[in-house]
Amino acid sequence: MEIRQATPFDIEEIFDIYQQIAQKHFDNAPNAFNPPSQEDKSFLLSKIQDDAWWFAVAESKGQIVGYAMARLDRNETVPFLAKTLICRLNTIVVDQTVQAKGMGRALIEACKSWAFESGAVEVRLEVMSFNEDAVGFYEHMGFETLSHTMNLKL
């Protein structure tokens, strides 16, 4: 397995994996997520091409089996929030057919290294509560709950 920077040539394989998690999110929270669409492919491609984003793929036997995207963020506007540099792990997805084989762990470790080398003091991510496997994985990786996002349907 290899973790490497994504390129525009990877977009089709990335999009195939993306559709798995996008469909799961839509099925479980249709009020918050749209079904996967071609517009999403353009969004992902724009992040691959944007130097402000770290976008990596996990590749095994010449096939992309997962990806992660993150960016650096520093609060500059809210006075009561710390102004430390943090890494926001926006998305991490591993193909359902190869989960629990170390791909997610390798992507997290690569993200942590990039964030540390960039001067970040922590990695933060958001995970939907219905995604219990992901919650368990992140907890196993050492992530702790910092807050809860709640909603009230009207």
Beta fraction of the residues? 15-25%
Helix/strand-derived class? Answer: alpha+beta
Q: Which CATH C-level class is it?
A: Alpha Beta
Q: Which fold does the CATH topology refer to?
A: Aminopeptidase
Number of strands: 5
- Separation of the first and last Cα atoms: 47 Å
Describe what this molecule looks like in 3D:
The protein is an alpha+beta fold and 154 residues long. It has a single domain (2-140), classed as 3-Layer(aba) Sandwich (Aminopeptidase). The chain is built from four helices and five strands, in the order E-H-H-E-E-E-H-E-H. The protein has helices at 11-28, 38-48, 103-117, 132-140; strands at 2-5, 53-60, 63-74, 85-94, 123-125. Strands 1-2-3-4-5 form a five-stranded mixed sheet. Helix 1 crosses helix 2. The longest helix has 18 residues, at 11-28. The radius of gyration is 16 Å and the shape is globular. The termini are far apart. The model has no long low-confidence stretch (mean pLDDT 92).
Descriptive labels:
Acyl_CoA_acyltransferase, 34% helix, 154 residues, five-stranded mixed sheet, Bact_Acetyltransf, EC 2.3.1.189, transferase, Aminopeptidase, GNAT_dom, alpha+beta, 5 strands
List the helices and strands and how they pair.
Blueprint: E1 2-5, H1 11-28, H2 38-48, E2 53-60, E3 63-74, E4 85-94, H3 103-117, E5 123-125, H4 132-140
Parallel strand pairs: 4-5
Antiparallel strand pairs: 1-2, 2-3, 3-4
Helix pairs in contact: 1-2
Summarize the structure.
The protein has 154 residues and is α+β, with helices and mostly antiparallel strands.
